Amino acid sequence: MRIAIENLPDDIETLKQLVIEKQALIEEREARLEHQRAEELYLRTWIEKLKLEIARLRRMQFGRSSEKLSERIEQLELIVEDLETSQAQASPPRAPSAEKTPPARKPLPEHLPRETVTHEPATNCPDCGGTMQRIGEDVAEMLEYVPARFKVIRHVRPKLACACCERIAQVPAPSRPLDRGIPGPGLLAHVLVSKYADHLPLYRQAGIYAREGVELERSTLADWVGAAARLLDPLVTALSNHVLAAEKLHADDTPVPVLQPGRGTTKTGRLWTYVRDDRPAGSATPPAVWFRYSPDRKGVRPLEHLGSFTGILQADGYAGFDQLYQSKPITEAACWAHVRRKFYDLHQATDSPLAAEALARIGALYAIEAEIRGRPPEERRQIRQARAGPLLAELHGWLTATLTKIPTKSELAVAIRYALTRWAALTRYAGDGRIEIDNNAAERALRDVATTRSLCTSLISGCKHWDLIFRFTATRAHLTVDGSTNLVAIKIRRSDLVRRTRNDLLSSENSVFDETTNHVVGHSERRRGFGHRQPFAVLRCRAVRGYVAHATQRADTVRGPSLALSGVHAHPVQ
To answer: Is the pTM of this model over 0.70?
Structure first.
């Protein structure tokens, strides 16, 4: 407590007592601050240590123990989150600065709706009573969240009877995404996104909905997920046709644990990804990813998946692909990233100078690729033959010579033999500008796979639903830059679905990838003549997005093999 000087007592003993009390209060506050500083230093040190550990594990995540590492990373991230929360709680609030400084944080996204609250002062001067005039204003923004909520849409269809001829007229009942089902398209989209994008199992979703007073059984949600997956079949067909029509594919697979009904245990299934992405070779063809699930990793699986494909297959050294190379007109292209990873792991563990030299030589090849990315195939081929060809010849000679000087059972020898046994497939990219130096396109697609824990399904067949829904990850909608034409990448109408999907969904003219959903919806309604909330669908930026139809005259309803993707406010279905 602050004491005015004029109120201080004149008695010396009383003054001494006041000084002693003040000193004790100061010491107590200093001890408290010192404790807070020590606690903050402890938390900051632990946070830095754990973040370094997470970074190290992320570099190892696609190795042989990737599943265990993923769980370890998740645990560490939760610990960091708790420590950062404790650090923020322990830190004293910052006093507002007297001087205005430019904000360090990023501005809030422009596409978000703004609600303005004006705090008007009194119009008369508090000192003299004169009239106040506006000379400016200060504006500060606060980010707020409006929780999602359920609503019930009642479809009322009046019956009209003719007084003359007794004719009865009534508008036909609007179709539903699920026959005789209660979920609207927006709710279905939300369930799918929560399960496959946000990794919320259905039983957790049922608990969340119960808090809102809506009782939905897990089995009911499971039925909805399966039915919604069936609705995506026409798009899956169009997407697979697009992927398999490519001249070059990237292929990879990853293990997924699935529950075995009746046994209470899990088994390891496989999720296969096939990627069409020719953008590095200057192609304007839209990229796409096609996923397939199988209960095992037998070599017959890729043969079944790629039965109609002919061309170049870029993959790792999995022996199961050999049947494709031997029985079909498919050319093998290997992956330099797998070669580099073996030397990198060895260098990180042993600091081997030979591994370091191998990394430097491979890095020179990647430097050339960085320069020619996006150029036409013929130009890439010429530059590779002129610059990468001599480097590859030197690298082959160095690997062969080094192999004779090291123990045959060493890890370095294993890495070198891995490269030499695949040399023809590894160097094929130098003579063909369509081929990439590595298979990272497929590995990047697999990074979008749900976490191991959330992917465990009640039945093995559940992975088939995930397989159907998740394929749209790499497919984008292509919208014109000026917003004048072709705003909607695909408008699905009745049985014309597959043809329109093939022609419009995969269009690539004047495309931009990252327009916000509200921006897309608003422009689509204005430019293409859609009435507000009339049905249309947009497939954009790793998500299937659509809009709910409330009008009774629906032209693109969900019937049989046809499909109208629709969801409240273009809700994404990944």
So the answer is: no
